[in-house]
Predict the structure.
Amino acid sequence: IPMISPLLKNCWVGIVNELNGKIKNKKKIKKDTFLIGRSGSADFIVKKDPYVSRTQCKISIVDNIPYLVDMGQSVKGTFLNSTYVTQAPIAPGDFLTVGRTKLVFGITKKVTFSGSVKKFSIDEDTNFKL
């Protein structure tokens, strides 16, 4: 059984439907390095998006902080809250864009986040409110 940092325990990644704000394909993070891509061996597989590389990015612990790390395999890159990144700290409520797919990094406890543009919350039922 892989070990998981308390920082990632209860965290998940899901695809955001930008039309209605609903989250689909939510997957719980169960280990310290969580790979996102089109590869069948990825922890979160992004299907039907040819702009996502096989190993697009990963969420991992760097210096005891959760980070989003681009794997350097994609022409389009990885975006965190609409900003291109190669490596950046990530927090519940952050948006990840890989190819044409928008993802959200969430946590199963009720939390509210205020971003620079919109305020939203994620609750235990994974309702996503913009």
Remarks:
- The longest strand covers residues 101-107.
- Residues 57 and 76 are 12 Å apart (CA to CA).
